[in-house]
Write a structure and sequence with these properties.
With 130 residues, this protein is mainly alpha-helical. The chain is built from four helices and no strands. Helix 2 runs antiparallel to helix 3. It starts with a helix and ends with a helix.
Length: 130
């Protein structure tokens, strides 16, 4: 197995693990009870990590086939990801005025963090010398 092909996935998983640990520490420090959440942190991290791995794989395949289409592929993959995320967050949005909006905020923060990771990966991929 070529180490260069596996490196983006190892980097992604190590970044996700570090962010997860920081997230857990923040929740522990501020005594935020996640037991009442519809989706646990682990489920959300697994969901977003799986989508990111799929996006990384798609972008790497597109880069090999047609380097010029990497940016458009990223936009398409991100749009599809947004549809899946909306389907997941929809039950949270249908709750009228929750007492504790932490779960909604948590979901959107995770979405933004993973979007930033994917964007940085895409930028690095596009800036590589072919």
């Amino acid at each position: 197995m070529n180490f260069k092909k596996v490196l983006p996935f190892i980097t992604l998983l190590s970044i996700v693990l570090a962010i997860y640990l920081i997230h857990r520490i923040i929740f522990y420090t501020f005594n935020i009870d996640t037991n009442t959440f519809k989706y646990s942190l682990e489920e959300l991290y697994l969901f977003f990590s799986l989508l990111s791995v799929i996006i990384f794989k798609v972008l790497l395949i597109v880069k090999e086939k047609s380097f010029d289409n990497v940016g458009m592929s990223f936009l398409l993959a991100t749009s599809i990801k947004m549809i899946f995320c909306y389907l997941i967050v929809r039950p949270l949005l249908q709750i009228p005025k929750p007492n504790n909006p932490t779960e909604r905020i948590n979901f959107f923060v995770l979405f933004i963090v993973f979007l930033a990771i994917e964007t940085l990966f895409t930028i690095r991929l596009v800036n590589e010398k072919a």
